[in-house]
Amino acid sequence: MTDPLLKIENLRIELKLRSGPIPVIDDLSLELNAGETLSFVGESGCGKSMTALAIMGLLPEKVGSIGGGRILFQGNDMARMNPAELRAIRGNEISMIFQEPMTSLNPVYTVGEQIAEVLRRHKGMGQADAWKRATELMDAVRIPNAKARVGDYPHQMSGGQRQRVMIAIALACAPKILIADEPTTALDVTVQAQIFDLLRDLGRDTGTATILITHDMGAVAEMADRMVVMYAGRKAEEGPVEPVISHPRHPYTKGLISCVPHLLAELTEERPDLTEVPGIVPSLGSFGADACLFASRCYMADAQCRNARPPEVAFGPQTSACWKADIV
Amino acid sequence: MTATLLNVENLSVRFPVKRRWGQSTWLYAVDDVSFEVKRGETLSIVGESGSGKTTAALGVARLVPNSAGHVVLGGEDFLKLEGEDLRRARAKIQMIFQDPYSSLNPRLRAEAIVREPMDSIGTAPVEDRPARVAELFEQVGLRPEQMKLFPHQFSGGQRQRIGIARALSTNPELIICDEAVSALDVAVQAQILNLLRRLQRDLGLTYLFISHDLGVVQHMSDHIAVMYMGKIVEYADRLSLFNDPKHPYTKALLSAVPSVDRARKVERMLIPGDPPDPLNPPKGCRFASRCPLVEDACRAAQPPLDPVGNDHRVACIKAS
């Protein structure tokens, strides 16, 4: 068994509020192996983006900070690296694409310059070489007529093309890990299909491991090998996609899957009401409590759930942090 | 056979667009679109951004200028009304908007927001209005003590409930839901979708449902119209559209949706590129530039929306 590429151990991220530090990520551990696609799933505010930012060393200064735990990338703890060390990794060995391709590109530079910048910075390429490579990368992300488009500014491109440019920037240095934070949420579904195909093909070619952050179970089922379901800053469930979706071991996972109307192989007249997960995500004030934070919305919750944080229970490759995982 | 409530005939909505040298031209966001909505049913309009689905809804609600065609509701052409007649008729068509944050006035209390349409259109006698507000709060699942709160004191899902109560306040015949659940988290989305369906059953509401989410559309609709670049390319009842789509664009759209159902092994039909420039639409079929089945005849003339079965119409010469 080889060491995982990325290993997060008991990570705790604190948000400084007037009332004191709040653990928005609470004792999170996970592993990412080379070449695999891992998906983080959950509702807004569950901490999936926060985890990604922590890996990238991009937590908002003075607001969020790592309060404990380790983020081991190839054995080195990124949580303790200085800014220079982080800069050498960021964009080079670990890179990220964001949800909104318009705001994450610089509007006053051509897309070619923005791709070339990464290559010059990390690979020490000269201007001409980097530009040539930028054109090749634009071709690789399937932007038609790359030679002519490389001098375009972001506003001259469609949303899908901008996201392709973001992918070209992210993959320019053939990173070992690509973090994709809701990469297709702002895009139309046919464009999403194009981007997913592209990510899958490029990932296969370069052997890049991907962390896909999404709220769409369909996207997880289609793209990921393994998934981590997060709730209120904690890991609710983890495991290979197939068993988790077909037999979730956490009531929250179950709710997330059944509350969405999916397209089915064969549609029938029958249309039962959607399963509701009542209520909303708990407020920050209750984060860090020694209890199951999902208890207030859970149909199975009892006194034990409200008074003690459930440990992770393993079911083969699947784990679930639920007191009642065996009867979910 | 249920009766037709809304009949939209040859609706076009255009926007002026400034070109260089002070010239301007028209962008047809909705181009000669006809459909009908039956009483008590849900018609969904689906399409991607820029397809004109929202503009079509705004055209029906008469919330955009430069609309042409007929929007006939209860024997009256909504687009021909003016002044006091129009104001009174607005009670019949109400809207639920996408963003529950920007669609509620932050300076009004929840009860005032829900009451406002009754005040401005003048449905229900003044003395009955407080009771009606209380009734609406109950119908959408809000507590009476929440009537005095301001929008910022509600969660996104609760705000959307306020928006629904407001839309219901005038006893409208048609409610337009414009991406009404798109901004919500999935768990809250399920609550709102269930609420909308329950209200439809209890009150016999008719919905014009605008959405880009095919899963949601599948769950909510009786009939579906698929739009592409301002045109309806396919119209069908729910089962026909999802189980037997005819237009290549509909097929591509459906195949692009990722699903958790492992049995749903659709052949992924990738359509390359982006839609053509809407200011300069192609003469023939608007989907021709991306269509895998395209032939010369497609580029020559626009295909009409022809019936291909009971309750099923397709604008494609290759559909059969």
UniProtKB/TrEMBL annotation, chain A:
Q: Name one GO biological process term.
A: peptide transport
Under the cellular component aspect of Gene Ontology, which terms does the record hold?
plasma membrane
Q: Which residues cross the membrane?
A: none
Q: Which family does it belong to?
A: Belongs to the ABC transporter superfamily.
- GO molecular-function terms, A-Z: ATP binding; ATP hydrolysis activity
Bilayer topology annotation: Peripheral membrane protein
Q: Which Pfam families match?
A: ABC_tran, oligo_HPY
Which SMART domains does the record match to this protein?
Answer: AAA
- The organism sits in which domain of life? Bacteria
Organism for this UniProt entry: Litoreibacter arenae DSM 19593
Q: What is this protein called?
A: Oligopeptide transport ATP-binding protein OppD
Alphabetically list the UniProt keywords: ATP-binding, Cell membrane, Membrane, Nucleotide-binding, Transport
**Localisation per UniProt entry:** Cell inner membrane
> Domain named ABC transporter: which ranges?
6-257
- InterPro entries to which the protein is assigned, alphabetical: AAA+_ATPase (IPR003593), ABC_Ni/Peptide_Import (IPR050388), ABC_transporter-like_ATP-bd (IPR003439), ABC_transporter-like_CS (IPR017871), Oligopep_ABC_C (IPR013563), P-loop_NTPase (IPR027417)
TrEMBL record, chain B:
Protein's cellular compartments: Cell inner membrane
Under the cellular component aspect of Gene Ontology, which terms does the record hold? plasma membrane
Membrane topology, as annotated, equals: Peripheral membrane protein
Identify the CDD domains for this entry. Answer: ABC_NikE_OppD_transporters (cd03257)
What keywords tag this UniProt record?
ATP-binding, Nucleotide-binding, Transport
Q: Its GO biological process terms? A: peptide transport; transmembrane transport
Note the NCBIfam families from the entry: oligo_HPY (TIGR01727)
Output this protein's name: Oligopeptide transport ATP-binding protein OppF
Family, as annotated: Belongs to the ABC transporter superfamily.
Protein species of origin? Litoreibacter arenae DSM 19593
PANTHER family recorded: D,D-DIPEPTIDE TRANSPORT ATP-BINDING PROTEIN DDPF-RELATED, TRANSPORT ATP-BINDING PROTEIN
> Could you tell me one molecular function GO term of this UniProt entry?
ATP hydrolysis activity
